[in-house]
Amino acid sequence: MAKKTKKIPNHLGIIIDGNRRWAKKRGLASFEGHRKGLDKIGKVGEWCKKRGVKILTLYAFSTENWNRSKKEVGYLMGLLSEALGERNLRKIHQRKIKLQVIGQKERLSQSLQKRIKKAEKLTKDNKEGILNLAISYGGRSEIIQAVKNIIKKKILASKITEDLINQNLWTGELPHPDLIIRTGGEQRLSNFLTWQSVYSELYFTKKYWPAFTEKDLDEALLDYSRRQRRFGR
């Protein structure tokens, strides 16, 4: 049962962390941690929707993650492809959720790119919520790409505003995250939503992502509801 809170974040970002450490603690292969982590994504999405979160952005694979072993990267890409498979996509569509992938999609395999295009096309008109999967994503890379987009449009320097940069980010004109949760015990953003997070509330938990529970989500939302957001005023 969801706890009643005074306010719910409209846009929630989550930095998924701790899959490998969760597995190691249990004497399992790191791949088992990633598998459990994938299972958790669907559950957390349902919990968030039930509580009224309209936009959920999940940091699933960073630009830095490409530096891991080829075997691990290959396995992670397989999991992400599975996450965008027919069965999972059908569930997302039935829940009226719009699915978007943000990041350097050109670095992904052609087969994964095709799955992304299919998922985005199928769900583009859904209105019950938005799920952003940040895949091959880096906040600095996003800002660089936004600058390149503006240069291509030959916009004068005097015309460049925060709103213009927002429009050219991978998140487009979506509102910025109200709350960012990071699992796994680390207390940093690690290149996640670098531009968009300047006034986000931050919540760090020691729970590894596969062990993150519905109660943990409620505790984070309750903590958020107690904060006063002044935006520098």
Whole-number count of domains: 1
**CATH homology superfamily:** Decaprenyl diphosphate synthase-like
The fraction of residues assigned to DSSP E strands is 15-25%
* Counted beta strands: 6
At the fold tier of CATH, the topology name is Undecaprenyl pyrophosphate synthetase
What is the string of SSEs from the N terminus onward? EHHEHHEHEHHEEH
Pick out the low-confidence regions: none
Q: What oligomeric state best describes the polypeptide chains here?
A: single chain
- Reading off the top of the CATH hierarchy, the class is best stated as Alpha Beta
Average of the residue pLDDT scores? 95
What's the CATH architecture? 3-Layer(aba) Sandwich
What's the Cα radius of gyration? 18 Å
C-alpha termini separation: 36 Å
Count of discrete alpha- or pi-helical segments spanning 4 or more residues: 8
Structural class label: alpha/beta
Characterize the largest beta sheet: strand count, sense, and whether it forms a barrel: 6 strands, parallel
State the helical fraction. 40-55%
What is the molecular shape?
globular
In the sheet with the most strands, the strands line up as: 3-4-2-1-5-6
